[in-house]
Design the sequence.
DNA sequence: TTCGCTTAGATTGTCGACAATCGGAGTGAG
DNA sequence: CTCACTCCGATTGTCGACAATCTAAGCGAA
């Protein structure tokens, strides 16, 4: 899947992954204080590796650290989300434009098959939003890989993009908009097949703008549940 | 200046700053192995804080860590630099477009004055490339701030942008191209004054493409001095 | 009652020592 | 002579304890 391997590496890496997962899924609430000793015991490790993990998550912008005052889970307020989607539009648009000339025919056809799977899943289970949401991320990540730009992949992929997954979990519970999204994905793939980078970028930017609009409205409805 | 305050915070933060500086300025060569014990002693601290600093730098992409095999300074090969400049073009273009509508008149006029300073410095000392290069970064950072997009500022600013400074130090020793760059900067400011976001973005993208082209040619000339 | 100071508790920052792992020198068999 | 194995030094990973700092409750004076 898109999710990285469970990290058989150092304890710090394991902790970083488990923490990231807990934060992304909402198991750890936004703004929650992260107690080092408590987390270290829960993960069965010392505070050393855990502190390294927190530094790592700080780099991912999943937690915010204040010297001598500990780390807290980041809070995704409306402005932050808006900023993220703005950057995302620019980066994913760029990825799409590059992918149109860089992806192999095999990769594009694999992308098309991926969408077939999504369509099936949508037809089968309406409620199983989880895998759909992950599948969507998978689609976007495959395009990022297609750009052949390692820095872009890093930013959009495993590392930096956890913020997006976090915001997905928070919003896509009642995931309306799966069908129009799928339609837009198909259009994007079509543009890639035609090797039309400009069109692909345009479509991707619209797609993301649409996603933001949808999420923005959703936030407007459920107002004022995150203080400060 | 653009450089962050010397960080009076935790030892790990101090170490991260000093290490970042050493890497950016080339004091620590590309690909060099970073020995924890040795660095810890040089900085007069234990290995704990230093390991946290390395984790931080890893997030900045200044070092590459391999479990059980230590950390090495990242190597900026041609492909990596190309990728960086590609992403930079997209992000700074976006920043420029936003800045055209978001910056205040005062900020824009301050930007203009900044360019006056640069012009003076260029006229005065031809060899003092350092401050010119830093001043250029300052110009770009001010525009990033003008976008009012925090995520964009983080990516282009203090944190993520150290890679750029690193590549500057490596290339801008014999900094030709200061005068055309200044000219382009002036054009960008003019577009901002006219509140023409599209034009500002276009000019910035060209400006960065030109910078990359210049650097690319410079790399071609001094070939094969980085092994692996 | 309210404000400010003091003190106790909890939490973070740091260090030194020990265990686990990796790389390389040295040795021996084929 | 070459290859593989073994062992040793060096380096990284981890832990527990101590020092420094912040937070909050309690007390006393205005």
Sequence:
């Amino acid at each position: 899947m898109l999710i990285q391997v469970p990290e058989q590496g150092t304890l710090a890496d394991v902790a970083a992954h488990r923490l990231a997962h807990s934060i992304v899924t909402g198991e750890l609430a936004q703004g929650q204080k992260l107690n080092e000793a408590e987390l270290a015991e829960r993960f069965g490790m010392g505070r050393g590796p855990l502190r390294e993990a927190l530094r790592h998550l700080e780099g991912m912008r999943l937690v915010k650290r204040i010297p001598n005052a500990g780390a807290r889970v980041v809070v995704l307020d409306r402005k932050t989300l808006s900023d993220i989607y703005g950057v995302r539009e620019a980066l994913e648009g760029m990825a799409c434009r590059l992918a149109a000339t860089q992806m192999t025919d095999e990769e594009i056809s694999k992308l098309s098959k991926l969408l077939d799977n999504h369509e099936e899943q949508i037809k089968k289970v309406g409620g199983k939003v989880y895998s759909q949401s992950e599948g969507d991320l998978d689609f976007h990540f495959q395009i990022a890989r297609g750009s052949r730009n390692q820095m872009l992949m890093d930013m959009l992929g495993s590392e930096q993009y956890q913020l997006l997954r976090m915001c997905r979990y928070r919003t896509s519970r009642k995931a309306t908009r799966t069908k129009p999204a799928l339609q837009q994905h198909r259009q994007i793939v079509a543009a890639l097949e035609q090797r039309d980078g400009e069109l692909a970028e345009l479509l991707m930017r619209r797609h993301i703008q649409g996603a933001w609009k949808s999420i923005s409205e959703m936030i407007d409805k459920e107002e004022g549940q995150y203080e400060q």
Remarks:
- Residues 35-37, 47, 51, 67-70 of chain B lie near DNA strand D (CB under 10 Å from a C1').
- Residues 78-102 of chain B form the longest helix (25 residues).
- Chain B has a mean pLDDT of 86.
